[in-house]
Hints:
Blueprint: H1 36-68, H2 79-109, H3 115-148, H4 153-181, H5 185-188
Helix pairs in contact: 1-2, 1-3, 2-3, 3-4
Amino acid sequence: MTMTEQSGKPAGEDNGRDTEHPGHRPAPGADEPESAHERVNRRWNEILQETRVTQTGVQILFGFLLSVAFTPVFKELGTLDRVVYVATVVLGASATGSLIAPVSIHRLLSGHRMKDEVVETAGRLMMCGMVLLALTIGCTLLLILRFVVPGVLAEVLAGAVMLWFGLCWYVLPLRLRRRAARPSPTDRA
Length: 189
C-alpha cells in the first residue's frame, strides 16, 4: 500500500508544511502534522509549478537554437563553433525531454496508485532537466560570446555564468538544507 492510499483526506488539501526534510521546523500555529497523502499531493503540485517555469525557458531557448542553423551567419561558423552548436542543440533537446517527461509519466500511470513513485521519479527528472538546462544555457552563451567577444574572454564569461548557476541552483539550496537540518538553539535546550 502506498502512502497516498493510507489517508482518507481528500486530494488537493495542502496545509503548506514541509515535513519531509530533517530538521524542518513547522510553521507557527502548525498543530497537526501533514499526512503522507497531503505531502505527496503537495509535492506533485510543486513539481507541476516548477515544470511550468523551466519548460517555458527551455522551449524558448530550444526554438531559438533551432532557428540559428537557418541564418546566413551560421555558414560563417568555424568547426569548433559548429561542434558547440550541435552539442547545445542536443543538450537543449535532452533538457526538453527530461522536463516534459513528468507529464508523460503522470498521464501513463494516472489511476494506478503510484503517485509516490511518480512524484519521486518526476523530482529526479526535474533535477536532471535543470542540469541539462544549465548546460544548454552555458553552451548557448559560449556560442554567442565566441561570435561577439574576441579571445578567451568568451570562455571566461561563459564559465563565470556557469559558476553562478551552480552557486544559485545547487550550492545555495544545499547550504540552506544543511542549515535547516542543524538543531536550533531552542531545540538544544
